[in-house]
Amino acid sequence: VRSFTNSLAAPLSPEDMQVQSSPDASPTKWHLAHTTWFFEEFVLARFDPSHRWRDARWRFLFNSYYDAVGPRHARAARGQLSRPSLADVMAWRARVDEQMISAMPALDEAMAAIVLLGTHHEQQHQELLLTDVQQAFAANPIEPCYATGPDEPSAAEAAPLRWLDYEESLTRFGDEADGFAFDNERPAHRVLVGPFRLASRPVTNSEFASFVADGGYERAELWLADGWAAAKASEWRGPLYWGNAGEDAATVFTLHGRRVRDPSAPVSHVSFYEADAYARWFGARLPTEYEWELAAMGSSLDGNFVESGRLAPAPGAGHAPCEQLFGDVWEWTASPYAAYPKFRTLDGALGEYNGKFMNGQMVLRGGSCFSPRDHLRATYRNFFPPGARWQVAGIRLASDE
Amino acid sequence: VRSFTNSLAAPLSPEDMQVQSSPDASPTKWHLAHTTWFFEEFVLARFDPSHRWRDARWRFLFNSYYDAVGPRHARAARGQLSRPSLADVMAWRARVDEQMISAMPALDEAMAAIVLLGTHHEQQHQELLLTDVQQAFAANPIEPCYATGPDEPSAAEAAPLRWLDYEESLTRFGDEADGFAFDNERPAHRVLVGPFRLASRPVTNSEFASFVADGGYERAELWLADGWAAAKASEWRGPLYWGNAGEDAATVFTLHGRRVRDPSAPVSHVSFYEADAYARWFGARLPTEYEWELAAMGSSLDGNFVESGRLAPAPGAGHAPCEQLFGDVWEWTASPYAAYPKFRTLDGALGEYNGKFMNGQMVLRGGSCFSPRDHLRATYRNFFPPGARWQVAGIRLASDE
Amino acid sequence: VRSFTNSLAAPLSPEDMQVQSSPDASPTKWHLAHTTWFFEEFVLARFDPSHRWRDARWRFLFNSYYDAVGPRHARAARGQLSRPSLADVMAWRARVDEQMISAMPALDEAMAAIVLLGTHHEQQHQELLLTDVQQAFAANPIEPCYATGPDEPSAAEAAPLRWLDYEESLTRFGDEADGFAFDNERPAHRVLVGPFRLASRPVTNSEFASFVADGGYERAELWLADGWAAAKASEWRGPLYWGNAGEDAATVFTLHGRRVRDPSAPVSHVSFYEADAYARWFGARLPTEYEWELAAMGSSLDGNFVESGRLAPAPGAGHAPCEQLFGDVWEWTASPYAAYPKFRTLDGALGEYNGKFMNGQMVLRGGSCFSPRDHLRATYRNFFPPGARWQVAGIRLASDE
Amino acid sequence: VRSFTNSLAAPLSPEDMQVQSSPDASPTKWHLAHTTWFFEEFVLARFDPSHRWRDARWRFLFNSYYDAVGPRHARAARGQLSRPSLADVMAWRARVDEQMISAMPALDEAMAAIVLLGTHHEQQHQELLLTDVQQAFAANPIEPCYATGPDEPSAAEAAPLRWLDYEESLTRFGDEADGFAFDNERPAHRVLVGPFRLASRPVTNSEFASFVADGGYERAELWLADGWAAAKASEWRGPLYWGNAGEDAATVFTLHGRRVRDPSAPVSHVSFYEADAYARWFGARLPTEYEWELAAMGSSLDGNFVESGRLAPAPGAGHAPCEQLFGDVWEWTASPYAAYPKFRTLDGALGEYNGKFMNGQMVLRGGSCFSPRDHLRATYRNFFPPGARWQVAGIRLASDE
To answer: Are C1 and C119 in contact (CB under 8 A)?
Structure first.
């Protein structure tokens, strides 16, 4: 996991890694440092009372949001920190990796669990590193490429949308397996769900273009009130990285640069508000997170993940009855992010990992083409504010009929 | 209903009714006009194609948020409208009442349903009228009184907090009765709930003061991240209308003026964030809206409502096993405001009544001392953003153990 | 002076007098109260140590900006104060007038000077009362009238623009007369001015319309950088109260209601930025305040003032060589508002009257159709921020050639 | 000039040069590129119609504020541009330098004047480069050093403050020499000045500390209204880079790192508001720009400039009657930045160089320890908004008595 993070940063210059593309995003260098801080703060410094920090001031700089750990640098000012240099951060990464390798054999079970959490934490930042670079590069009129990639859209046509029927059921949801899961996926609990229908694949660029062409962004009746206000205030006219009217109209900006949109690929970089408006326009709705999980329970973890090097959503193969649940695009659900019944946060500072954000955000499921495959599972709950557009988030429809 | 609105405005001067106390609140005069607009817009003008508007420009001024009806005056600028005058608005109210009385015998069932909706809509504005006046008077250093009231707190001591146990059950929630209910209470549907415990009464001023004294507003670990940010940004140090440190420390500002707080009365004018933080401090949690409804199903609709003229929460009598579910204070629940399964909005413009706000808000249940009694029921879903403090909102605890 | 203020308020309802039209403006009721506070605070309470305040809390409410007097109510929240009522304020005015009449015979010279200052202060608020009502009424889609007035523009054509030549001179400027003048007009001092040319009359609506038609609001090269930013940010397309494109295009909103613009009348309600851009477009410039004063020294104090009841700028008669220096519209000068050499503020709290605002504002000269005639003189220095548009401010050109 | 810019950037890493420390400041890399753009845009591309731009998109990125040249990248987003890389920018600098060397022999007089302007323009950016780096490093909790420097304050004690007397005079100000001067220094013109007194040296750190200790930042009566509002809103408690209370209290952050303040050195990094408040506290005032220029006319251009490598203000030697007029700290004057009589902007796009900023700013005179010596002269007019603190600006007192 640690070396994969380094490989994601490899195509970038020190200057690229310095840029903070928005107050919600972080510089690549900060991601590299923060994920390292996690291990020094929560493992090395706690395991060995005589541990000497690489630089104690870095605790302040690279703490993200853990109040229990202490004060921290202002989030929106992360891009100001030209020091420590990238070279210093990379050396720190190597040093902490070595110290971890030395320490791990002697860690007790609780500490080993934190190490495991640290690797999953780092995988989350791998995805954020890419979404944040995409945002930074998109803000540059020169529109740099992060990596080479296919120039032409696939010739494939998307499989026709089909509806999969689910009976009413009282089902056990959430994680109760032996492997790793975040605290917000627990405890497992039973919920009465359905009946409902779920779309066999995500909404495509071509389908979303019909919504745009039909005045989707100009019809208040399709939108939640907050969504309508956001769309008007920010002058949304299409998904975040779609080209403007004119010669760029049919393009999308990706980590492979600006290129012609693939009409058959899943639409991405839409907010929850846009996903919700699309569903209303279509005469459908978004699935709840339970409906989504019910469908995913039986599906194999196949899809287009970051390991493929194809850093843009791709059309589905059209083989499976329910396609692309995993990978390609995160799927916005109709479920506000809230605690599961009898939810318990982790003890100590790590209790701040998930619980304190259970407010004002929506759940997304399934993972994207920027997600590491082994980071995902059917019970995984991602969450973002309803107006967020810089994540690789798309739409899967559900219906009651 | 219509004349009760007038009686609520009676103690106020034309100037009092002109003031808009915050962008979220409205002047009394606007409430008087908007509730009248509702009947002219949705009943009179639709029932009679030859209907002549009292003043067609008022459609623009007093439309609240119905995009389907047309454009409207900016919400935050309602306090700028010195014209039409209060006298004009009161004459309009009388005229519309007369026209409604003439029209009602001939209305069809659908139109009659809108009339009924209009009365419940007006009751909602009766409560808002009072909360908005309280906010305006509180912002005035002179702190005017809206009405005379008891000067001294009750001598009563609050009943000890007890926990009521509920077994796990698969229960049908939401409205399916013949009477009136809002669309957001429907359709009725089954949910698996519990087991859980519910507090026998709301949290009191005295109990909340212990939270404050224990540093509740200074301990980040008790708060949701957004709540902590709001509390720090707005320098919250106690519920909205509690007096500042010094000679006012033990007071609260009410529609009866500033007076010594009743330690046994339910705490009110707290945000969801404060309710949530209090619950965490106590070692409990807030109930979900289903848990609350389960408890309320069997309770009689007793309590302290606006009709009593006692415009501040009062201590419970201590008789019933589960007290003050209705009246006194709205109770924040842990449930984000979302659509019930198979929810359908009303047709036409009135479809904007509730559905488009199902985002970013929390459900409150039970009604307050500002609510008309016959406006309430066990299935009633009120909703406000989690940071809202100017409503008469308090706290009831729940627990898993 | 005191009764004239009352007469200006007479056409307004209590609700009209409650409205604050912008954070920079004040409600009529506040003007009525603040001008009364001035006499109670600076004369009555200081003259008589045993003086009893009408209500000591009103010192906080109606202090405008005197830090030396103590804390005060937030300026932007003046419109929130429904109490004291208008009736209370009018009774206070009468009471203070009576107390002043009793006290005046015994006042010493210093105190008498403050009384005189108080009347000139009140005249300033008479003008502000009208500009603030105009702003409030303009913000109301109903566009109420403050007073009846001529419905049709004058048939008169404006006199042709002529240039008056001034030789270089070393002239003494500022006030050194025996009568009243503000501290910022003193001390008199010599300045080397000229040679220059001054326009014989202000710029007319018709002339300014040519600037608009020539793309004046779309050509960055005509504007100061801050002015261009303000024009774009606020979407200025013409003077503040000019009608929008469409059927209102040839209208202007005045205290007599919306009516067809008089092409021969001076343009008004433009900011310094617009005045400066117009001058640049014309190939001229704005006069300095010294140039303006040089021209005004020899002019009689004739013009269109508030006493006429004609509350909109009117065309000049075309008789005098240099017309309308006084009345009709304040004239923006090229002079930043700064202290005259050896300027001394008044002693005590009244030292805050003018001096602390000598920063970031521009000087205007001459008075407007909202100004009382006997409030004005050739040395009078008015000042407003360069972006202010709600004052009755227009343009007179100057040139070096 | 061009190679000196490079030498100023030499101590910085690519990441240091990427950071934008505030919306008003620019990254070092941007300064390096913009000064190069100046020569390609205004000389090379105009001189040779067949000139090929290094990259035509860079015209958009590195145009600062010239509307006549075309649209441009948002100022506040300059720190987002990780591409072009520093290496690309340095190669561009070399290429443009070569092209300029080839072109210069054939340039006509007008073009040669633009080349000269370009070098003075670049010197302005040399100073900004340093002020912006200082701001960026100060915002980093690690507080990096830009360059090594003296660790200890000088032992020297400041010379006692003396007052130099000036008679009233009618003097010719502004530039009329043959050498280079900016358009805003012209035309030369006569002004009547005086009598007045001018302080023999700038205010020292020690003297300013007395103002702070005397409650200077807590006494509204010492401040302009806008200054007081700025001081309270931004919680100013001392000059920008002075250490906070506690162990840092006697320190200042400089490009040589944080170190003990030199009590005898001129105070720096104060706003006009603070300079004005200090002067009022002292019982003096700030000089006008004409008073300052009168004193500087006869002074030799000696002082502490950027070439010395001593990048912090230093105590004066105490030899000359009027010391440190040049170098060490820019001196705020009481003069708003305005056009001189008969001021004419340059033709074309370069007319935007100075004229459009003649609004809302104050004139500073004399240059600082970050200024190149040969960039300065007695007629030089620098200007910044009255609240700006990140420039090396200090205080010299004047008086009427």
So the answer is: yes
What's the N-to-C CA distance of chain A in angstroms? 44
Q: What percent of chain C has pLDDT over 90?
A: 92
Q: What is the DSSP string of D29-73?
A: HHHHHHHHHHHIIIIIHHH-TT---S-THHHHHH--S-TTT----
Q: Do D144 and A83 touch (CB under 8 A)?
A: yes
pLDDT digits (tens, 9 = 90+) for A374-396: 999 999 999 999 999 999 999 99
Among the listed ranges B147-156, B195-204, B247-256, C29-38, which one has the minimum average pLDDT value? B147-156
Which residue in A353, A223, A352 sits closest to A281, CA to CA?
A223
- Of the candidates D246, D106, D227, D114, the residue with the CA atom closest to the CA atom of residue D180: D114
| Cβ-Cβ contacts under 8 Å, C13 against chain B | 14, 82, 85
**Which residue type does C131 have?**
T
Query: How many Cα atoms occupy the beta-carbon half-sphere of A340 within 13 Å?
Result: 24
Helix (H, G, I), strand (E, B) or coil at C6: helix
Q: Tell me the ipTM for this assembly.
A: 0.96
Pairing verdict, β A393-394 and A330-336: parallel
* Tokens encoding D347: 């033709």
Q: Residue C41: what pLDDT?
A: 97
Which of A341, A356, A386 comes nearest B360 by C-beta? Answer: A386
Q: How far apart are CA D366 and CA D356, in angstroms?
A: 22
Count of C-beta atoms within a 10 Å radius of residue C58 = 23
With 0-12 / 13-18 / 19 or more C-beta atoms within 10 angstroms meaning exposed / middle / buried, residue A45 is middle
In whole angstroms, what separates CA A78 from the centre of its chain?
20
Q: How many residues does chain B have?
A: 401
Task: Determine contact: B353 vs chain A, CB below 8 A.
Answer: no
Which of these, B317, B324, B330, B316, lies nearest to B300 by C-alpha position?
A: B324
Complete edge-to-edge strand list for the sheet that includes strand C393-394: C382-384, C362-365, C330-336, C393-394
D393 interfacial to chain A (CB closer than 8 Å): no
**Mean residue pLDDT across chain D:** 96
- Note the pLDDT of residue D155: 74
Give the separation between CA D398 and CA D395, rounded to whole angstroms: 10
Burial, C19: exposed, middle or buried (Cβ in 10 Å; 0-12, 13-18, 19+)? buried
For A92-109, the pLDDT digits (tens) are 999 999 999 999 999 999
Q: By CB neighbour count within 10 A (0-12 exposed, 13-18 middle, 19+ buried), where does C180 fall?
A: middle
Interface of B with A in 32-91 (CB under 8 A): 65, 67-68
Task: Please give the helix or strand (H or E) that residue C62 lies within, else none.
Answer: helix C58-62
Distances (CA, A) of C205 to C194, C197, C263: 29, 22, 5
Q: What letters, b where the CB count within 10 A reaches 16 and e where it falls short, cover A317-337?
A: eeeeebbbbbbbbbbbbbbbb
Is residue D199 within 8 A of residue D163, CB to CB? The reply is yes
Q: CB pairs under 8 A, 24+ apart, for B279-283? A: B279/B395, B279/B397, B279/B398, B280/B222, B280/B223, B281/B211, B281/B214, B281/B216, B281/B219, B281/B222, B282/B211, B282/B397, B283/B399
